[in-house]
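Encode chain A's predicted structure.
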Amino acid sequence: MSSELYHALIRTHHITSRRKVSVLTKAARKHSCLVLLRSGASPGLMYCEGMESSVNAWVSVVEHLRYKDFHMVARPAPVPVEIQGSKIDRLQSPTRGIYEYGSIHEFAGQMSLLGLQDWWATMMGYK
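Encoded structure for chain A:
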């Protein structure tokens, strides 16, 4: 089994249901994923990172929640090798789980801390 990090990016109409966020949180813990959510307004954004099987399992949970306007912006794929080397310092806290942000600006800031600002901007069509 590979120890390579994988990630995925999902866009939805919005993320407002606390019940669904609770399901996403439990899935992130169960599958040992790092998950970033942009919740509260449109668009809803979800970034997931972890081992390949973990990311695939977490994405499957999201798909079953039937979010409005679900769009898989970036299917599960390996995180670029140059980014993987710094995975210990990827967020302010190295623990796995869910981190919620209320604005795209905050979400983008975390993507930048992860070293993924160019990838994220390209996937979102900003570049």
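The mean pLDDT is 87.
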